[in-house]
Every structure is written in C-alpha cells, then in structure tokens.
C-alpha cells in the first residue's frame, strides 16, 4: 500500500502517474470504508481525491498555503498530511474532525466549518505575504455551492484588483448540498459546455485570469494546470469540473442524500442504524406544505440546506414557486424575507442555528428596524447538532434575544411550535 507510508506531501512528489492512480484508488477505498463505519461528508470528498493529490504534488505545503472551502472537502488532504491512520485504522477514526483544524496540523491554516470564506481568507494571507516580502503561493479551494455566498463574491471582487499571487481553484461538481441555485451557476454550466470559452465569464469580468479543466478527476491534467500557475504573479481562477461522490455508485446516483451520510452497508448503501424521523421537523414539513396550499402568498426560503427541515425533492416540487433556495447566502435570505413581508407575502426562512450567526446585521437592520413581519425558523438549536467548534448550535438566543422588535420563541413541544 502507498497510503500507509505517506507522512507528508513530500512523500508523493516523485510518484509516477501509475503510482498516483494507485494512491487515488487506495484513498477512495479508505474513505468509503471509514464513512461506512462513522459517517461523514462522503460525497464531496470522493470527488476531490485526484485534485488533492495534484495540489500536494505541485504545491509545497505548508509553506504554500491551501485553504479549503467548504472544509468538509478536506478528508483527502488530511490523508496526505500525516493523518492517514485516522482513515485507515478504526481505532484512530476519532482522532480527526470533519473540517480543517489548526490544532490538528500545521497544514490546516484555519478552523473552517461555514462556507464561502476561503477567498477572503486567502486575500488576507496574500496581502500579509506581500507586506512581509515573502513569495509562497496562496491557494483557495472552493466548491460545493460555496461560490453562491456573498462573502465569496466580495472576496473575488478584492482578488480581482490584486497584482500578486493568488490562486483560486473552483471545484465545480454542479451541486451544493442539494442542487445549485442562482444565475452564476447557469454561467458555470455554459462555461462547462464550451470548454471554458463561454462569453459570460464572471471571473474575467472581475479582473482574474481564468483556466478550465474539463475533467477535474484527471490527476495528470490537474497537475499540468496547477503547475502552469504556480508562482504566478497575478490572481487566477482554475475552474475544474469534478464528479461528486465519484467511485461510490450510491453517491454518484444521489449526490444530495450522499453529501453527508450516516454509517452504511457498503454492499447496498442501506443505513446501518436507521433512526426515526424527528417528529418536530416532520410536523414542520406538514405545516409548510399545508400553509402553502392555504395561502398563495406563503413562501418558504432555504439557504442551500433544504430549509433545515429536510424537504425532499418531491416536497420542493410540490411547493413550486412558494419555495425559494437562495444558495448558501443566509444574509440575503434574511433581507429577502424582509422584502417579501413588506410586499405582502408571508415568508418563513429556515436554517440551522449555527448559520444564523452570519445574519445579525440583516436581522437587526433590514428586518427589525423596519418591523417586517417575517418568520425565522431556527433548527438544530442545541448541542446535539455539534460536529465541532464551528457548528455549535446554542449562540442564537444570545445573538438575537436583545434585538428590538424581534420576538424570540423557544417552544418546548410540537404543539407550541406549531
């Protein structure tokens, strides 16, 4: 085996193409075996194995800085940076978190659990490097719908006028947690269909160089593309088209369900320990569907996670125009809810407690100062949702309970909730 002998990225730099293919196969098998036992973000990680091998073949981490966004794509990175045992040996499975973690390794430069932050973080690292007179590469690896977040666009805007090394790798697998939404994803689709030559190119319009790799699961093509921009003295986007869930048929066929998955039987894909549906969430779905039928002005808003209540594709289709997924853009969802309410609609925006941390200003300014009668559903509002320090679900009360004109309710039963 190759993987068990890798202690740092330097160990793979002399590999031949055949060795890299063998390594990728070992990594894919290890990821599937581990996820079948402990669960996790299996789909995203299966899709970036080849890209991760290419990254660590070309760049010289940790001197070169690689920032993962969303960092639930970092499992292959951890496997190549001294943490392979946590993916090979069941007795070590609990030794790593599901995200990049500065306490685990010098190869992880930030604790990152929320999305759309990598480009902004990378611009800061690049500016600090320039001020200090250093010359390392700074790489932001962004995907899984993270480009739809406002901070990602703000970061692109700043990156576009930087005149130094900044490499943005866009992992385009045509998915977020569920399907992608937004005009930019139509633009990305046209770029894919034209092999990167489409006229509508957001990145070039913002002042960045642009390259396209049609097969983002071809390690050798990725190595060539990354090597061509290494040590570049201007910002560049490398747009790679990958397959989410690659190598696991269940994940390839159903990328949404297999974005993050409970432990499963590898032969059938069946969940090992089925759990009963959360009665509160089930009741919420029933309420949303019934209210949409009763009130044509009712709108349910989601920010990339099917509303935090697990709306199925069929239920989203049933809601039709009364369901709006804004992408991973919680700030926009809150402000849009205010506009909907002011326009006479009856909006509900639902998402996990941890993601409401982004929305304080919109809640205070756009909603509450204007007394807009919008409803905000907070799910996962307790420690039980926690996966690590980035996903704690108990800040919402302290964040919002003091905001004037906001009524904060914490129901203790389904009856109170509805």
Outline type:
globular
| Main sheet attributes: strand count, strand direction, barrel closure | 5 strands, parallel
Low-confidence stretches are none
Structural class: alpha/beta
Number of beta strands: 9
State the helix count: 17
Question: How would you describe this structure to a colleague?
Answer:
The mean pLDDT is 95. With 418 residues, the chain is α/β, with parallel strands linked by helices. It has a five-stranded parallel sheet, with helices on both faces. The protein has a four-stranded parallel sheet with strand order 7-6-8-9, with helices on both faces. The protein is built from 17 helices and nine strands. The radius of gyration is 22 Å and the shape is globular. α13 (313-319) links the parallel β6 and β7.
């Amino acid at each position: 085996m190759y993987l068990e002998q890798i202690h740092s990225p330097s160990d793979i730099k002399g590999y031949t193409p055949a060795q890299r293919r063998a390594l990728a196969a070992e990594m894919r098998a290890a990821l599937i075996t581990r996820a079948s036992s402990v669960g996790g973000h299996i789909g995203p990680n299966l899709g970036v194995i080849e890209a991760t091998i290419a990254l660590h073949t070309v760049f010289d981490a940790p001197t070169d800085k690689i920032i993962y966004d969303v960092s639930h794509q970092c499992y292959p990175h951890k496997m190549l940076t001294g943490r392979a045992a946590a993916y090979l040996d069941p007795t070590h499975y609990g030794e790593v978190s599901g995200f990049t973690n500065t306490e685990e390794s010098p190869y992880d430069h930030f604790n990152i659990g929320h999305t759309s932050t990598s480009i902004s973080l990378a611009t800061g690292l690049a500016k600090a490097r320039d001020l200090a007179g250093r010359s390392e590469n700074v790489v932001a690896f962004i995907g899984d719908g993270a480009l739809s977040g406002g901070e990602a666009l703000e970061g692109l805007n700043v990156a576009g006028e930087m005149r130094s090394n900044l490499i943005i790798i866009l992992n385009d697998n045509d998915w977020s947690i569920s399907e992608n939404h937004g005009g930019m994803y139509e633009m990305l689709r046209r770029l894919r269909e034209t092999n990167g030559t489409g006229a509508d190119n957001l990145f070039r319009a913002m002042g960045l160089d642009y390259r396209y790799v049609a097969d983002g699961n071809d390690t050798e093509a990725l190595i060539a593309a990354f090597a061509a921009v290494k040590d570049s003295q201007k910002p560049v986007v490398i747009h790679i088209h990958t397959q989410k869930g690659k190598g696991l048929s269940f994940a390839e066929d159903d990328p949404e369900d297999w974005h993050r998955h409970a432990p499963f039987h590898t032969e059938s894909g069946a969940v090992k320990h089925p759990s009963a549906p959360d009665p509160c969430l089930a009741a919420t779905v029933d309420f949303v569907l019934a209210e949409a039928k009763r009130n044509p002005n009712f709108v349910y808003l989601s920010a990339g996670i099917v509303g935090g209540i697990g709306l199925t594709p069929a239920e989203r289709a049933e809601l039709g125009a009364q369901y709006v997924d804004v992408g991973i853009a919680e700030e926009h969802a809150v402000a849009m809810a205010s506009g909907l309410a002011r326009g006479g609609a009856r909006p509900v925006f639902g998402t996990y407690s941890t993601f409401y941390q982004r929305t304080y200003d919109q809640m205070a300014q756009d909603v509450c100062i204007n007394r807009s009668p919008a409803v905000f559903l907070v799910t996962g509002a307790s420690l039980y949702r926690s996966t690590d320090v980035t996903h704690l679900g108990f800040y919402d009360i302290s964040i919002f309970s003091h905001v004037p004109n906001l009524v904060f309710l914490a129901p203790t039963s389904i009856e109170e909730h509805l």
